[in-house]
Amino acid sequence: MSFDHRKYRRFEVPNKPDRQWPNNRIDHAPRWCAVDLRDGNQALVKPMSPAQKQRMFDLLIKVGAKEIEIGFPSASQPDFDFCRKLIDENRIPDDVTIQVLTQARPELISRSFEALKGARRAIVHVYNSTSVVQREQVFGLDKEGIRQIAINGAQLVKEEAAKYPETDWVFQYSPESFTGTETEYAIEVIDAVNAVWQPEQGQEVIINLPATVEMSSPNVFADQVERVCEGVKHREHITICLHTHNDRGCAVAAAELGVMAGADRIEGTLMGNGERTGNMDLITMAMNLYSQGVDPKLNFENMAEIREVVESCTDIATHPRHPYVGELVFTAFSGSHQDAIRKCLVKRKDGDVWNVAYLPIDPHDLGRRYEEVVRINSQSGKGGVAHVLERDYNIDLPRWLQQEFSRLVQKEAEDQGGEIDSLTIRRLFEEYYLAVPDGWQLQRYDLHRGDSGISATATLSSGREYRGVSKGVLEAIVQAVTAELGQSIDIDEYNEFAVEGGTNANALACIRAVIDGQNYSAASLGEDTTSAMLQALFSIAGRYSDVITDNRKLA
Ligand code: KIV
Ligand code: ZN
């Protein structure tokens, strides 16, 4: 059998019963570092061109990234050239720090410093692998051998930096594959690096803990992070950074729990492009904070532009359900969701705290429109259909008509087998309710109040005239029409609404009547409530008489 779980081992969970992180909350944004141009770029089928790199860099600046890993210049000539271009053409804003990655090897470290020559401030990020599998199977080195690589790398970084005193240098070290490294050993290596860099003497140092491969559930990662934070020397003088990958689909959760466990800084990419299943998605993590009332210190108000630039630089399409970004993430098709959203939006007042069912954040904040929120297919209910008519056409339907009409829309959606757009909904409403049968168009009406009630006269396009007297206009004309049809018309439902803006009409009237045991419904938009009401009644009468005529023909 090829699908056999016994091939795999359980991840050995470090024993940390004194963990504190579950009690912590994230009440401020971590420092962010965007690695789209390095880790993200390294993972692309077709790495970014110089123009795409510049576009991505400009976008990262625009969303507010203050630390940007721009490449691996010692390993890639295009990355080297891009780094030089940014520095030589003075394209790095004063409040932004660039970062480059290098392996802990002498020639690569010195080349990285050449790439950074002349930068106002820069982070040199040096790494070597420390995990058990890398030590044993890739490098064939013991723990001490790997520790020495880290120490030598740190020493070289320090020496090279001294050759370029005009730059404000920040040193960053990653025990690459940290998640597969014994935590106590990782602490030993980190301490050895810091013994060279001496953060306690004022050198700015970042220690990055990469989940190069995500190997456990996020709570285990948080235990590892907390242990490093409490175990390393000079904790108060170093920045602890996390760099999570998404192999188990939990990169964001791991970073969040890692921040609760004490990390100060997070590396990631916009929408999570990166090796294999990707890097931690900066947008998701930042927006998660935003949705909890924490200022994420990144701005995604123009999400359409962000998405367009990321897609065009990575050549990767966005999944329609990608958190906060995908086309469908603020859309409800299901009837009960639509109903709840509609009710919450109607009740909402400007300045209210966001509290809308099924929408964790306000789509407007990301430049999305409420129009996208409710879309109609065969799963949708009366609330959704009513919402579309109200939102797009200012047509406010009574509940009975919402139920009736949504059944017609559902039938149409089932027949078409897909989504029903707003124009089709409007067309169906016209066809089924607003359409006036031939000859039944109200031309004018006349009302007189007398001792015996209201005397009403209505004239149709066919020239026919209906006259009646009763206590109300509708009753008066119902009497007249009943007399002509020879059938009683029992008004079952009647509603009228003022219509605000969007159409020439000022009033909407909706009527359901029972004639000869059958239900007939109609609606009408009129200049005033009386004309709308009379027209809806005549439309019903016209429909009934069309049915009778058709039946006679059939007989
Ligand atoms: O995933 C990783 O470990 C990396 C390091 C080089 C930081 O990208
Ligand atoms: Zn990585």
What does the model show?
The strands form 3 sheets. An 8-stranded parallel beta sheet has the order 1-8-7-6-5-4-3-2. The longest helix is centred in the last third of the chain and has 26 residues, at 529-554. It has 17 helices and 14 strands. The chain is of the alpha/beta class. The chain has helices at 36-42, 50-63, 77-88, 106-116, 132-139, 143-162, 183-197, 218-231, 251-260, 282-290, 303-314, 335-347, 382-393, 399-416, 422-434, 473-485, 529-554, and strands at 31-34, 67-71, 97-103, 121-129, 168-176, 204-211, 238-244, 265-268, 442-450, 453-460, 465-470, 489-498, 507-515, 518-526. Helix 2 (50-63) runs antiparallel to helix 11 and helix 6 (143-162) packs parallel to helix 7. The protein starts with 30 loop residues before the first strand and ends with a helix. It folds into 3 domains: 28-314, TIM Barrel (Alpha-Beta Barrel), CATH 3.20.20; 335-415, no CATH class; 442-554, Double Stranded RNA Binding Domain. The mean pLDDT is 96. Helix 3 (77-88) links the parallel strand 2 (67-71) and strand 3.
